[in-house]
TrEMBL record:
Spans annotated as Disordered: 37-135
Basic and acidic residues: bias regions: 53-67
All residue ranges annotated as the PD-(D/E)XK nuclease-like domain in the record: 214-458
InterPro entries, A to Z: PDDEXK_12
Native source organism of the sequence: Dactylonectria estremocensis
A Pfam family this chain is assigned to: PDDEXK_12
UniProt feature, compositional bias: Low complexity: 105-119
Name of this chain's protein: PD-(D/E)XK nuclease-like domain-containing protein
Comp. bias intervals (Polar residues): 41-52, 88-98
Length: 470
Protein backbone atom coordinates (compact mmCIF):
# COMPACT_ATOMS: atom_id res chain seq x y z
CA UNK A 1 0.00 0.00 0.00
CA UNK A 2 1.24 3.46 -0.92
CA UNK A 3 1.68 5.58 2.16
CA UNK A 4 1.17 9.31 2.36
CA UNK A 5 4.96 9.79 2.52
CA UNK A 6 5.46 7.66 -0.60
CA UNK A 7 2.83 9.70 -2.45
CA UNK A 8 4.57 12.96 -1.52
CA UNK A 9 7.92 11.51 -2.65
CA UNK A 10 6.44 10.62 -6.08
CA UNK A 11 5.12 14.15 -6.47
CA UNK A 12 8.52 15.57 -5.53
CA UNK A 13 10.23 13.31 -8.09
CA UNK A 14 7.79 14.48 -10.77
CA UNK A 15 8.43 18.14 -9.89
CA UNK A 16 12.17 17.56 -9.97
CA UNK A 17 11.87 15.98 -13.43
CA UNK A 18 9.88 18.94 -14.75
CA UNK A 19 12.44 21.44 -13.48
CA UNK A 20 15.31 19.47 -15.00
CA UNK A 21 13.65 19.57 -18.46
CA UNK A 22 12.66 23.22 -18.28
CA UNK A 23 14.21 25.48 -20.96
CA UNK A 24 14.43 28.36 -18.53
CA UNK A 25 17.83 29.97 -18.13
CA UNK A 26 17.27 30.26 -14.35
CA UNK A 27 18.86 27.48 -12.35
CA UNK A 28 18.46 26.58 -8.68
CA UNK A 29 21.71 25.90 -6.85
CA UNK A 30 22.66 22.24 -6.99
CA UNK A 31 23.09 20.33 -3.81
CA UNK A 32 26.34 18.42 -3.36
CA UNK A 33 24.41 15.19 -3.90
CA UNK A 34 22.87 16.27 -7.21
CA UNK A 35 24.67 14.58 -10.13
CA UNK A 36 25.74 16.87 -12.98
CA UNK A 37 25.35 16.11 -16.67
CA UNK A 38 28.51 15.06 -18.39
CA UNK A 39 29.59 17.91 -20.67
CA UNK A 40 29.45 16.05 -23.97
CA UNK A 41 29.49 19.22 -26.07
CA UNK A 42 33.05 20.12 -25.21
CA UNK A 43 31.99 23.50 -23.82
CA UNK A 44 33.08 25.13 -20.58
CA UNK A 45 30.49 25.26 -17.79
CA UNK A 46 29.82 28.91 -16.88
CA UNK A 47 30.70 30.04 -13.37
CA UNK A 48 27.86 29.84 -10.91
CA UNK A 49 26.33 33.07 -9.68
CA UNK A 50 24.36 33.49 -6.49
CA UNK A 51 20.60 32.99 -6.39
CA UNK A 52 20.00 36.65 -5.66
CA UNK A 53 21.70 37.68 -8.92
CA UNK A 54 19.65 35.24 -10.95
CA UNK A 55 16.42 36.74 -9.74
CA UNK A 56 17.29 40.39 -10.41
CA UNK A 57 15.70 40.36 -13.86
CA UNK A 58 15.47 38.66 -17.22
CA UNK A 59 18.66 38.31 -19.23
CA UNK A 60 19.10 40.93 -21.94
CA UNK A 61 18.06 39.86 -25.41
CA UNK A 62 20.72 39.88 -28.08
CA UNK A 63 20.16 42.09 -31.09
CA UNK A 64 19.56 39.95 -34.20
CA UNK A 65 21.84 40.85 -37.08
CA UNK A 66 20.24 40.71 -40.53
CA UNK A 67 21.08 37.40 -42.21
CA UNK A 68 23.68 36.62 -39.57
CA UNK A 69 23.48 33.01 -40.63
CA UNK A 70 25.84 34.00 -43.44
CA UNK A 71 27.97 36.85 -42.12
CA UNK A 72 28.83 36.54 -38.45
CA UNK A 73 30.12 39.41 -36.37
CA UNK A 74 30.54 40.23 -32.70
CA UNK A 75 27.45 41.32 -30.77
CA UNK A 76 27.40 44.22 -28.33
CA UNK A 77 24.76 42.84 -25.98
CA UNK A 78 25.42 40.46 -23.11
CA UNK A 79 25.26 36.86 -24.38
CA UNK A 80 23.31 34.10 -22.63
CA UNK A 81 25.14 31.39 -20.64
CA UNK A 82 27.32 29.07 -22.69
CA UNK A 83 25.69 25.85 -21.51
CA UNK A 84 22.98 25.04 -19.02
CA UNK A 85 23.95 21.89 -17.14
CA UNK A 86 20.33 21.40 -16.14
CA UNK A 87 19.05 21.57 -19.72
CA UNK A 88 18.03 18.34 -21.43
CA UNK A 89 20.82 17.30 -23.82
CA UNK A 90 19.86 17.79 -27.47
CA UNK A 91 20.57 15.53 -30.40
CA UNK A 92 23.54 16.12 -32.66
CA UNK A 93 21.33 16.43 -35.76
CA UNK A 94 22.50 19.98 -36.29
CA UNK A 95 26.04 18.71 -36.75
CA UNK A 96 24.95 16.97 -39.95
CA UNK A 97 23.90 20.19 -41.65
CA UNK A 98 26.07 21.59 -44.45
CA UNK A 99 28.57 24.18 -43.27
CA UNK A 100 27.65 27.80 -43.75
CA UNK A 101 29.08 29.52 -46.79
CA UNK A 102 30.72 32.20 -44.67
CA UNK A 103 32.43 32.05 -41.30
CA UNK A 104 34.63 34.31 -39.29
CA UNK A 105 38.31 33.49 -39.52
CA UNK A 106 39.76 31.55 -36.58
CA UNK A 107 41.21 34.60 -34.88
CA UNK A 108 37.90 36.40 -34.93
CA UNK A 109 35.84 33.40 -33.89
CA UNK A 110 38.03 32.74 -30.86
CA UNK A 111 37.20 36.15 -29.42
CA UNK A 112 33.47 35.83 -30.06
CA UNK A 113 31.13 34.18 -27.60
CA UNK A 114 30.31 30.70 -28.92
CA UNK A 115 26.67 31.26 -28.10
CA UNK A 116 26.36 33.85 -30.83
CA UNK A 117 27.75 31.32 -33.31
CA UNK A 118 25.26 28.74 -32.07
CA UNK A 119 22.37 31.11 -32.60
CA UNK A 120 23.48 31.73 -36.16
CA UNK A 121 22.76 28.08 -36.99
CA UNK A 122 19.13 28.19 -35.92
CA UNK A 123 17.72 29.22 -39.29
CA UNK A 124 18.21 27.28 -42.50
CA UNK A 125 19.95 29.03 -45.36
CA UNK A 126 17.86 29.83 -48.39
CA UNK A 127 19.98 29.38 -51.54
CA UNK A 128 18.66 32.67 -52.87
CA UNK A 129 19.61 34.51 -49.71
CA UNK A 130 23.09 33.06 -49.83
CA UNK A 131 23.82 34.48 -53.28
CA UNK A 132 22.21 37.79 -52.40
CA UNK A 133 24.57 38.09 -49.45
CA UNK A 134 27.42 38.64 -51.89
CA UNK A 135 26.00 42.14 -52.07
CA UNK A 136 27.15 42.71 -48.48
CA UNK A 137 30.78 42.63 -49.60
CA UNK A 138 32.60 45.95 -49.46
CA UNK A 139 32.68 45.75 -53.26
CA UNK A 140 29.32 44.01 -53.79
CA UNK A 141 28.77 41.27 -56.33
CA UNK A 142 25.57 41.25 -58.39
CA UNK A 143 24.57 38.36 -60.65
CA UNK A 144 22.96 39.92 -63.73
CA UNK A 145 20.99 38.12 -66.44
CA UNK A 146 22.52 38.09 -69.90
CA UNK A 147 20.42 40.31 -72.17
CA UNK A 148 19.49 39.46 -75.73
CA UNK A 149 21.73 42.28 -76.90
CA UNK A 150 24.66 41.26 -74.71
CA UNK A 151 27.21 43.11 -76.82
CA UNK A 152 26.05 46.42 -75.35
CA UNK A 153 25.90 44.89 -71.88
CA UNK A 154 29.47 43.56 -71.77
CA UNK A 155 32.72 45.55 -71.53
CA UNK A 156 34.72 46.07 -74.70
CA UNK A 157 37.46 43.62 -73.70
CA UNK A 158 35.14 40.60 -74.10
CA UNK A 159 32.65 41.70 -76.77
CA UNK A 160 34.48 40.02 -79.63
CA UNK A 161 35.02 36.95 -77.46
CA UNK A 162 31.30 36.80 -76.65
CA UNK A 163 30.33 37.05 -80.32
CA UNK A 164 32.66 34.20 -81.24
CA UNK A 165 31.41 32.01 -78.40
CA UNK A 166 27.81 32.80 -79.35
CA UNK A 167 28.47 31.54 -82.88
CA UNK A 168 30.01 28.38 -81.42
CA UNK A 169 27.47 27.63 -78.69
CA UNK A 170 24.26 28.74 -80.41
CA UNK A 171 24.98 28.36 -84.12
CA UNK A 172 27.48 25.48 -83.70
CA UNK A 173 29.77 27.17 -86.20
CA UNK A 174 33.26 25.76 -86.70
CA UNK A 175 33.07 23.16 -83.93
CA UNK A 176 34.03 20.03 -85.89
CA UNK A 177 37.34 19.21 -87.62
CA UNK A 178 36.60 18.48 -91.29
CA UNK A 179 39.30 15.79 -91.46
CA UNK A 180 36.98 13.42 -89.56
CA UNK A 181 33.71 14.50 -91.17
CA UNK A 182 32.57 11.04 -92.18
CA UNK A 183 33.35 9.48 -88.80
CA UNK A 184 31.73 12.33 -86.85
CA UNK A 185 28.57 12.23 -88.98
CA UNK A 186 28.36 8.48 -88.46
CA UNK A 187 28.86 8.79 -84.69
CA UNK A 188 26.21 11.49 -84.39
CA UNK A 189 23.83 9.74 -86.77
CA UNK A 190 22.93 12.70 -88.94
CA UNK A 191 24.24 14.87 -91.74
CA UNK A 192 26.07 17.94 -90.48
CA UNK A 193 26.00 21.39 -92.03
CA UNK A 194 29.14 22.63 -93.71
CA UNK A 195 29.19 25.67 -91.41
CA UNK A 196 29.67 23.39 -88.41
CA UNK A 197 33.13 22.41 -89.67
CA UNK A 198 36.12 24.62 -88.94
CA UNK A 199 37.96 26.47 -91.66
CA UNK A 200 35.26 25.83 -94.24
CA UNK A 201 37.14 22.72 -95.38
CA UNK A 202 35.31 19.56 -96.34
CA UNK A 203 38.18 17.38 -97.53
CA UNK A 204 39.36 14.76 -95.09
CA UNK A 205 42.88 15.00 -96.50
CA UNK A 206 43.35 18.71 -95.76
CA UNK A 207 45.14 20.12 -92.75
CA UNK A 208 43.47 23.01 -90.97
CA UNK A 209 45.34 25.71 -89.11
CA UNK A 210 43.93 26.03 -85.59
CA UNK A 211 45.58 27.91 -82.73
CA UNK A 212 49.28 27.16 -82.61
CA UNK A 213 49.41 23.99 -84.72
CA UNK A 214 47.90 21.96 -87.48
CA UNK A 215 44.97 19.60 -87.06
CA UNK A 216 45.77 16.42 -88.96
CA UNK A 217 43.37 13.62 -89.77
CA UNK A 218 45.04 11.35 -87.23
CA UNK A 219 44.63 14.00 -84.52
CA UNK A 220 40.99 14.57 -85.48
CA UNK A 221 40.23 10.86 -85.27
CA UNK A 222 42.04 10.54 -81.94
CA UNK A 223 40.10 13.53 -80.62
CA UNK A 224 36.80 11.95 -81.68
CA UNK A 225 37.67 8.73 -79.86
CA UNK A 226 38.71 10.64 -76.74
CA UNK A 227 35.45 12.59 -76.68
CA UNK A 228 33.44 9.40 -77.09
CA UNK A 229 35.29 7.96 -74.09
CA UNK A 230 34.63 11.12 -72.05
CA UNK A 231 30.94 10.98 -72.95
CA UNK A 232 30.75 7.39 -71.71
CA UNK A 233 32.55 8.31 -68.47
CA UNK A 234 30.23 11.28 -67.89
CA UNK A 235 27.12 9.17 -68.31
CA UNK A 236 28.55 6.56 -65.96
CA UNK A 237 29.37 9.23 -63.35
CA UNK A 238 25.80 10.50 -63.41
CA UNK A 239 24.26 7.02 -63.38
CA UNK A 240 26.30 5.89 -60.38
CA UNK A 241 26.05 9.18 -58.53
CA UNK A 242 29.81 9.65 -58.40
CA UNK A 243 31.41 12.45 -56.43
CA UNK A 244 32.63 15.79 -57.70
CA UNK A 245 36.21 14.54 -57.40
CA UNK A 246 35.37 11.57 -59.64
CA UNK A 247 33.82 13.87 -62.25
CA UNK A 248 36.95 16.03 -62.18
CA UNK A 249 39.23 13.01 -62.54
CA UNK A 250 37.34 11.13 -65.24
CA UNK A 251 35.48 13.84 -67.17
CA UNK A 252 36.33 17.51 -66.65
CA UNK A 253 40.10 17.16 -66.30
CA UNK A 254 40.58 15.04 -69.45
CA UNK A 255 38.19 17.29 -71.39
CA UNK A 256 40.12 20.46 -70.52
CA UNK A 257 43.45 18.77 -71.21
CA UNK A 258 42.24 17.67 -74.63
CA UNK A 259 40.93 21.13 -75.49
CA UNK A 260 44.26 22.78 -74.61
CA UNK A 261 46.55 20.05 -75.94
CA UNK A 262 47.86 22.14 -78.81
CA UNK A 263 47.93 25.52 -77.09
CA UNK A 264 51.31 27.06 -76.50
CA UNK A 265 51.00 28.88 -73.17
CA UNK A 266 47.50 28.45 -71.72
CA UNK A 267 47.19 25.51 -69.35
CA UNK A 268 44.63 24.11 -66.94
CA UNK A 269 45.37 23.60 -63.27
CA UNK A 270 43.41 21.58 -60.73
CA UNK A 271 43.08 23.90 -57.72
CA UNK A 272 40.77 22.09 -55.31
CA UNK A 273 43.27 22.69 -52.47
CA UNK A 274 44.19 26.29 -53.35
CA UNK A 275 42.95 28.49 -50.51
CA UNK A 276 42.56 32.25 -50.67
CA UNK A 277 45.34 34.02 -48.77
CA UNK A 278 44.04 35.96 -45.77
CA UNK A 279 45.20 39.40 -47.05
CA UNK A 280 42.90 38.96 -50.05
CA UNK A 281 39.72 37.67 -48.44
CA UNK A 282 37.03 40.10 -49.63
CA UNK A 283 36.06 42.52 -46.83
CA UNK A 284 32.41 43.05 -45.94
CA UNK A 285 30.32 45.98 -44.79
CA UNK A 286 29.58 44.17 -41.52
CA UNK A 287 32.12 45.31 -38.90
CA UNK A 288 34.32 42.56 -37.55
CA UNK A 289 33.35 39.93 -40.11
CA UNK A 290 34.79 38.54 -43.31
CA UNK A 291 34.09 35.66 -45.64
CA UNK A 292 35.28 32.10 -45.61
CA UNK A 293 38.03 31.16 -48.03
CA UNK A 294 36.24 29.58 -50.97
CA UNK A 295 37.94 27.12 -53.31
CA UNK A 296 37.05 26.11 -56.85
CA UNK A 297 38.06 23.21 -59.10
CA UNK A 298 40.03 24.37 -62.14
CA UNK A 299 41.63 27.48 -63.57
CA UNK A 300 43.05 28.36 -66.96
CA UNK A 301 46.35 30.17 -66.52
CA UNK A 302 48.84 32.07 -68.63
CA UNK A 303 51.78 29.66 -68.28
CA UNK A 304 54.95 31.24 -69.64
CA UNK A 305 57.46 28.94 -67.98
CA UNK A 306 58.88 26.39 -70.36
CA UNK A 307 58.00 28.30 -73.53
CA UNK A 308 60.66 29.05 -76.11
CA UNK A 309 59.87 32.48 -77.58
CA UNK A 310 61.91 35.47 -76.44
CA UNK A 311 58.82 37.58 -75.71
CA UNK A 312 57.37 34.87 -73.47
CA UNK A 313 60.66 34.51 -71.60
CA UNK A 314 60.91 38.26 -71.04
CA UNK A 315 57.35 38.42 -69.73
CA UNK A 316 57.93 35.46 -67.43
CA UNK A 317 61.09 37.07 -66.04
CA UNK A 318 59.25 40.36 -65.50
CA UNK A 319 56.46 38.61 -63.60
CA UNK A 320 58.92 36.77 -61.37
CA UNK A 321 60.82 39.97 -60.62
CA UNK A 322 57.56 41.71 -59.74
CA UNK A 323 56.50 38.88 -57.42
CA UNK A 324 59.83 38.66 -55.57
CA UNK A 325 59.61 42.41 -54.87
CA UNK A 326 56.35 41.94 -52.95
CA UNK A 327 56.09 41.58 -49.15
CA UNK A 328 56.85 38.12 -47.86
CA UNK A 329 53.20 37.14 -47.38
CA UNK A 330 52.28 38.22 -50.93
CA UNK A 331 54.92 36.69 -53.14
CA UNK A 332 52.46 35.19 -55.60
CA UNK A 333 50.64 36.79 -58.51
CA UNK A 334 47.13 35.51 -57.71
CA UNK A 335 44.94 35.50 -54.61
CA UNK A 336 46.29 32.13 -53.47
CA UNK A 337 49.78 31.00 -52.41
CA UNK A 338 49.24 27.60 -54.09
CA UNK A 339 52.75 26.90 -55.51
CA UNK A 340 51.79 25.94 -59.12
CA UNK A 341 50.09 29.34 -59.45
CA UNK A 342 52.87 31.48 -58.00
CA UNK A 343 53.87 32.98 -61.38
CA UNK A 344 51.01 31.72 -63.57
CA UNK A 345 48.24 34.29 -63.78
CA UNK A 346 44.66 33.03 -63.45
CA UNK A 347 42.52 34.11 -66.40
CA UNK A 348 39.50 31.76 -66.34
CA UNK A 349 38.01 30.14 -63.23
CA UNK A 350 35.98 26.92 -63.37
CA UNK A 351 33.72 25.39 -60.71
CA UNK A 352 32.19 21.94 -61.15
CA UNK A 353 29.28 20.32 -59.33
CA UNK A 354 28.39 16.64 -59.48
CA UNK A 355 24.72 17.24 -58.72
CA UNK A 356 22.22 19.63 -57.22
CA UNK A 357 21.78 23.36 -57.50
CA UNK A 358 24.20 25.70 -59.21
CA UNK A 359 23.72 28.24 -56.41
CA UNK A 360 26.68 27.08 -54.34
CA UNK A 361 28.87 27.10 -57.45
CA UNK A 362 27.93 30.69 -58.21
CA UNK A 363 28.72 31.59 -54.62
CA UNK A 364 32.17 29.98 -54.82
CA UNK A 365 32.99 31.66 -58.12
CA UNK A 366 31.84 35.01 -56.73
CA UNK A 367 34.04 34.90 -53.63
CA UNK A 368 37.01 33.51 -55.60
CA UNK A 369 36.75 36.26 -58.21
CA UNK A 370 36.33 38.99 -55.58
CA UNK A 371 39.55 37.75 -53.96
CA UNK A 372 41.38 37.95 -57.31
CA UNK A 373 40.18 41.55 -57.61
CA UNK A 374 41.59 42.19 -54.13
CA UNK A 375 44.97 40.87 -55.31
CA UNK A 376 45.01 43.05 -58.39
CA UNK A 377 44.01 46.12 -56.38
CA UNK A 378 46.88 45.37 -54.02
CA UNK A 379 49.23 45.55 -57.00
CA UNK A 380 47.64 48.85 -58.01
CA UNK A 381 48.18 50.33 -54.56
CA UNK A 382 51.75 49.17 -54.13
CA UNK A 383 54.46 51.73 -54.75
CA UNK A 384 56.11 49.57 -57.39
CA UNK A 385 52.93 49.43 -59.46
CA UNK A 386 52.12 53.14 -59.46
CA UNK A 387 52.65 55.19 -62.58
CA UNK A 388 52.68 58.93 -63.02
CA UNK A 389 49.06 59.14 -64.09
CA UNK A 390 47.71 56.48 -61.71
CA UNK A 391 46.29 59.15 -59.43
CA UNK A 392 44.33 60.71 -62.29
CA UNK A 393 42.81 57.55 -63.71
CA UNK A 394 40.91 54.68 -62.19
CA UNK A 395 42.23 51.29 -63.13
CA UNK A 396 39.60 48.87 -64.35
CA UNK A 397 40.21 45.17 -63.88
CA UNK A 398 39.92 43.00 -66.95
CA UNK A 399 36.67 41.11 -67.45
CA UNK A 400 37.08 37.51 -66.32
CA UNK A 401 35.27 34.57 -67.95
CA UNK A 402 33.86 32.08 -65.43
CA UNK A 403 32.69 28.53 -66.19
CA UNK A 404 30.25 26.54 -64.07
CA UNK A 405 29.51 22.86 -64.71
CA UNK A 406 26.62 21.08 -63.00
CA UNK A 407 26.39 17.41 -63.94
CA UNK A 408 26.57 17.39 -67.76
CA UNK A 409 25.83 21.07 -68.42
CA UNK A 410 28.39 23.87 -68.80
CA UNK A 411 27.54 27.56 -68.36
CA UNK A 412 29.59 30.70 -69.04
CA UNK A 413 29.58 33.96 -67.06
CA UNK A 414 31.53 37.19 -67.37
CA UNK A 415 32.77 38.97 -64.21
CA UNK A 416 32.69 42.66 -65.13
CA UNK A 417 34.39 45.37 -63.08
CA UNK A 418 31.99 48.33 -62.73
CA UNK A 419 34.19 50.33 -60.37
CA UNK A 420 32.03 50.36 -57.24
CA UNK A 421 30.66 46.85 -57.81
CA UNK A 422 31.32 43.58 -59.58
CA UNK A 423 28.66 42.34 -61.99
CA UNK A 424 28.66 38.69 -63.00
CA UNK A 425 26.75 38.58 -66.28
CA UNK A 426 25.29 35.27 -67.42
CA UNK A 427 24.49 32.54 -67.82
CA UNK A 428 25.20 31.27 -71.32
CA UNK A 429 24.99 27.56 -72.18
CA UNK A 430 28.22 26.43 -73.83
CA UNK A 431 27.80 22.69 -74.26
CA UNK A 432 27.37 19.48 -72.31
CA UNK A 433 29.15 16.19 -71.68
CA UNK A 434 26.12 14.04 -72.55
CA UNK A 435 26.39 14.35 -76.35
CA UNK A 436 29.16 14.55 -78.92
CA UNK A 437 27.84 17.87 -80.21
CA UNK A 438 27.88 19.22 -76.66
CA UNK A 439 31.43 17.98 -76.07
CA UNK A 440 32.76 19.46 -79.31
CA UNK A 441 31.06 22.72 -78.33
CA UNK A 442 32.85 22.81 -74.96
CA UNK A 443 36.18 22.07 -76.63
CA UNK A 444 35.68 24.88 -79.16
CA UNK A 445 34.64 27.34 -76.42
CA UNK A 446 37.66 26.49 -74.24
CA UNK A 447 39.97 26.97 -77.22
CA UNK A 448 38.39 30.33 -77.95
CA UNK A 449 38.89 31.32 -74.31
CA UNK A 450 42.54 30.25 -74.52
CA UNK A 451 43.10 32.46 -77.57
CA UNK A 452 41.58 35.39 -75.64
CA UNK A 453 43.86 34.69 -72.66
CA UNK A 454 46.94 34.76 -74.89
CA UNK A 455 45.93 38.05 -76.49
CA UNK A 456 43.58 40.44 -74.67
CA UNK A 457 44.27 39.16 -71.16
CA UNK A 458 48.02 38.96 -71.75
CA UNK A 459 48.13 42.58 -72.93
CA UNK A 460 46.14 43.73 -69.89
CA UNK A 461 48.57 42.02 -67.50
CA UNK A 462 51.56 43.65 -69.18
CA UNK A 463 50.02 47.13 -69.21
CA UNK A 464 48.42 47.03 -65.78
CA UNK A 465 51.33 45.61 -63.80
CA UNK A 466 53.80 47.86 -65.62
CA UNK A 467 56.01 44.93 -66.54
CA UNK A 468 59.26 46.23 -68.06
CA UNK A 469 60.75 44.51 -71.07
CA UNK A 470 57.66 42.41 -71.72
Amino acid sequence: MTTHADFLAQIQDWVDGISAESPSVYRWPLSPETPRYINTLGMTTPPSSGPSKRQEGSPRKRRREPDNDIFEGPTTDAPPPLYDIDQTPKSNASNNRPSLPYRLPTSARSSTNPSSTTSSHRRSNSPTKRTQNLQVLEKPIHYIALEDNATDQLPSDVRLLYNRIYNIAVEHELIFPPQARHEISKAIGRNIRDSWFSGGYTSEEDEVQEGDGHVSRSFALAELQALQDIKAEARECLRLGRSEAAWNLDVHGPLLKLALAQHRCVKKELVTTARIASPFLPPTNIPGSSVESKMIDFVLVLALDGVSSDSDKRLDESIQKKIWSQPRDRQFINQTPYPPLQFRTIAVSIETKAAGSAEEGRLQLGVWTAAWHQRMNDFFNSDSAKTRDSAQRQRTIVTLPLLLSVEHNWKLFFACDRGDRLEVVGEMSVGDTNTLIGLYTIVAVVRELANWVDSTFRKWIIDTLDLPGA
